[in-house]
Amino acid sequence: MSKYIGALDLGTTSNRFIIFDHNGRIVGLDQIEHEQIFPRPGWVEHDPMEIWKNSEAVIRGALNKTGTAGKDLKAIGITNQRETAVVWDKTTGKPFYNAIVWQCTRTDEICRQLSEEYGQDGFRDKTGLPIASYFSGPKIHWILENVPGIKSAAQKGLVLFGTIETWIIWWLTGGPGGGAHVTDVTNASRTLMMNLKTLQWDKDILNILGIPEQILPRIVPSIDQNTWGHTQKNGAFQATIPICGALGDQQAALVGHACFEVGEAKNTYGTGCFLLLNTGNTAVTSKHGLLTTLAYQVRGQNPVFCLEGSVAVAGALVQWLRDNLGLINTAAEIEGLALSVEDNGGCYVVPAFSGLYAPYWHSNARGAILGLTRFVNKGHLARAVLEANAYQTRDIVEAMNRDSGVALSKLEVDGGMVSNNLLMQIQADILNVPVIRPEMTETTALGAAYAAGLAANFWSGFEELRKNRSVDCTWKPHMDEDKRQEGYRYWQKAVKRTFNWLD
Fold first, then answer.
1. Mean pLDDT, residues 456-475
2. Cα 29 to Cα 121: distance, rounded to the nearest angstrom
């Protein structure tokens, strides 16, 4: 009998393969970073072939480190950076262009023209999303319009599009030799092309974007006992294992936290910051700048929806402090530096490096440091960086409370930054709710494992998954209310200063 579930976590900066046991505990893992490519200001790319080769490498690495054989795995789940777009030749597997990453702003002009003609919320009724450079559809349009020869190849039926999970599933299940070309509903809901009512590609939007439907993958449930294919026996697993679970990374974290009930929410502090609130089988239309998106779907059941607030720059702001300014040597050092001062010294950092996402949606905003005086030192700047993550989260929570009519009572957290205890206390103080960190902080990969394990009957259902949860630490708010509101007022003032920086 197979003892484990494998989860392939295809992140923005690295790929990881993690092996989980029946209790949701990590048996072993391997991780490799991939190159971040910046051809021009605001442009962000990845090499799809590097991501595929690294995927194979981390699979082999995790299996070898733990002495686990591929046949010991019951099923494979996949989670991924969501809106990143890859377009490739289905006969060769060669990409026509680098993957355009979710952070990339090259489609600003395309989105501006669409917004002028249809309004920024012109597709929201169908897709739950505003027109923004964040999403995959405009990226596909850019590739079709700017890469020589791709339109004629598309007419010949040689072109395939996918987000990163689609790209890797296709390779794992055979690639040019008949790989499965599928995307799950959560990733499809981030393209600006899927109709939330039908869970199918919307033909009117495809016509507007000039995207032929034949290049798009088949949309499938996130948890699918039918499976979409099996790994190849001559591949990294050296075994045929069903691939039957896939979730975009933020939805995977929601599942990993076992947020299966209406009103349960989680926040992930990674490269970006993403807060999701389960709204059940109802797709709640946001009137305050949030996204309506798929949380997950089990085959044969109605889809579950969520409201999402997406922040472009969270952990990436700490990386900027390290790599661009050189104020710290490692990301972990920011906590000690921030603790060297009592407060931010009146300094606020707004990390609108590629515009502002939810709830503002100002693609022409740019980053700023405000409130500087001669008193401010690098400790204050470090603290302001941490506070920026907490304030951006409060922006999302304020909008979410207004949209849902339900005030947040606690916040489940995960992601690389939650190891920073000071940030977690700052977050509790700024939100005025408890912040809860689970023992298992690898909730994104765990959610992908849960999806595959549920489909393969490795776990019996949601109730069994809830029993796997255990809390590591809870932070309770201690800040005076007047100080809390004053800090947030200055933060909002700083954010508004970044609007319309670009003409």
1. 91
2. 42
